Amino acid sequence: MEIERFIWTEHAEMRLGQRRLTAADVEQAIRDGHLDRQVNDGRAEWLVSGRTADGTAFEAIYDHPHGDDETAVRIVSVWRLDS
Q1: What's the DSSP call for residue 40?
Q2: Cβ(5)–Cβ(73) under 8 Å?
Q3: Which of 79, 68, 77 has the alpha carbon at shortest distance from 9?
Q4: Could you report the per-residue pLDDT of 9-64, keeping only the tens digit for each?
Q5: 3-class DSSP state for residue 33?
Q6: Listing from the earlier edge strand, what are the strands of the sheet with 57-63?
Q7: 0.90 cut: is pTM over it?
């Protein structure tokens, strides 16, 4: 199964700008990390970690599948892991 579609919540889109992240970086992290994702205990099913091109670590939470669509994820939130 390959992820083909990303549905962004308003909250997640807002957090991208606030946290200086790009949709492309987050979507790539989900594609790359989906098979190794962790169960999330909060507002979404899954948690994945990633890095921006400049090395900034971040995490994203998302639901998969989105409805009955196995190729879609719904991104709920993203945040940087600044030290």
Answers
A1: -
A2: yes
A3: 77
A4: 999 999 999 999 999 999 999 999 999 999 999 999 999 999 999 999 999 999 99
A5: helix
A6: 5-8, 72-80, 57-63, 46-51, 38-39
A7: yes
Exposure b/e, 25-63, CB count within 10 A at least 16 = b: bbbebbbebbeebeebeeebbbbbebebeeeeebbbbbb
Pairing of strands 57-63, 46-51: antiparallel
Neighbouring CB atoms inside 10 A of 23's CB total 14
Reported as a single tens digit per residue, the pLDDT across 61-78 is 999 999 999 999 999 999
The confidence score (pLDDT) of residue 38 equals: 97
The CB density around residue 70, as the number of other CB atoms within 10 Å, is 13
Catalogue the E-assigned strands of 5-71: 5-8, 38-39, 46-51, 57-63
One-letter amino acid for residue 16 of the chain: L
